[in-house]
Amino acid sequence: MPGRIEQEAVVGSSQHGLRLDQAAAELFSDFSRSRLQAWIRSGALRLDGNLMRPRDKVAAGALLTLAVELEEEVPWAGEDIELDLVFEDDSIVVLNKPAGLVVHPAAGHQTGTLVNALLKREPELANLPRAGIVHRLDKDTSGLMVVAKTLQAHAHLVAQLQERTVKREYAAVCIGAMTGGGKVDAAIGRHPRDRKKMAVLSVGGKPAVTHFRIAERFAHHTHITVQLETGRTHQIRVHMAHLHCSLIGDPSYGGRPRIPKAAAQPLIDMLRQFPRQALHAQALGLIHPRSEELLQWDVPLPLDMQELLGVLREYDRESRDDAVY
Known about the structure:
Blueprint: E1 4-10, H1 20-27, H2 33-42, E2 45-47, E3 63-69, E4 85-88, E5 92-97, H3 114-121, E6 142-148, H4 151-162, E7 167-175, E8 182-185, E9 188-190, E10 198-200, E11 209-217, E12 221-228, H5 235-242, H6 251-254, H7 265-273, E13 279-287, E14 294-298, H8 303-318
Parallel strand pairs: 6-13
Antiparallel strand pairs: 1-3, 2-3, 4-5, 5-6, 7-12, 7-13, 8-11, 9-10, 11-12, 13-14
Helix pairs in contact: 1-2, 7-8
């Protein structure tokens, strides 16, 4: 059955001066802007308890309250798609998403998605925003995701993400021999010319912070572990490209494969044929929405990334010269 959802959010400094519907879209990101506009007009979404118009401006510190009876949110059908479940109870599902699986149905991917697979197992997820999904991974990024099974769990997880208490650790393999770990604090927004891509922006982007450390260094590549403070679209891929250390296999932000001088043929083949960005969500930690227990899950690297690292190690044993691209 459809259920009732009640949420609150405080307007932050980054939303100060925005239209109410714009601020609401940032603070209640599980819902579309058009749906939020309708709720503002109906009075289900209020500013400091008052009826407002979508175009009215908001000030930092103001309170947005949302109280609405949800209709069925997800129109898509369930499909019999195998999932690698890591944990499940009455409140949440944690799964290890394979590379190549799209999370949400969209143009060009109306079927065969994670949402379709979830709806087959749990049809009642159709009553939750985005079928209970509170964060997403790119199609070609593998690894851990959490999905809410109840409205209470959904609200709890969304709040944790907003408060940045969810731990997300990724493994990535980058082009370039990095000299040490660090932090990237650079705002991200829609690319000014290519609307399918994101970019680091000096004006108009949303705050984005990425921490990384070296796990293994090679002659011309680096295996890193990454932790996110924020969760912007393509954040790791964009931030690593900003450091001129794009991920192996990332055509959107890394361009054509770069082959080291005098590289052995197995390495050349691997770099040219690696089928996706070398990025894997290997650890996830959160507070359980019902028990309040701190939980963490870890999954190993998928086979393709293990093979990639194996070839890089073999090449390093054969040749650690000062060759350049």
